[in-house]
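re: that chain from earlier
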Amino acid sequence: MAFAPEHVSAYELSWEPETPSVGRSRAGSSRPAPEELSVSMLEAVEARLASAGLGRYEISSYARPGFESRHNRRYWERRPVLALGPGAVSLDPPSAEAPFGVRRANVRSEREYLERVEAGLAAEAGPPERLDARTARGEAAFLALRTRSGSRRGPSPGSSAARRGPSSPSRSSGWWAWVCSSRAPAETCS
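^ sequence. v structure.
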């Protein structure tokens, strides 16, 4: 904290299959922290950052007021994003042909990405994904839950839904009605 950062991202290590971390764990040279220890460490991080004036605004991000990541907010609010680089994913804005937007992903290999770009070719990994209402609304719901404002906020202006629900998280109106209007599973909306 001696450097007085304006923004801190604090992520817990993910133990994903087929990664070096999992390989070391299988070999016995490392292992995931027990859940209780992970929770304690996260609480200590949050308390220390709060005491330094950095509030949690997203599941793994803390910032001084006014220094929240505008880039990340675009993802959480499903606003258009341009993908640049290997493995990057774009979200194109809604249009008449794709009212809930289009997602495009670049190839993951750096070598292949550079070869394509240098040859003047598209770096997309496959055909674009034209999002349907159910997918867009489901994503809006789970992405909103990553943020401090959560689902009470509703879809943001510029999101593929292009409408905002009232601040009430009631399942019969506002946010949940908007999510459920896309024929979400009955157990989600009952």
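The first helix runs from residue 20 to 27.
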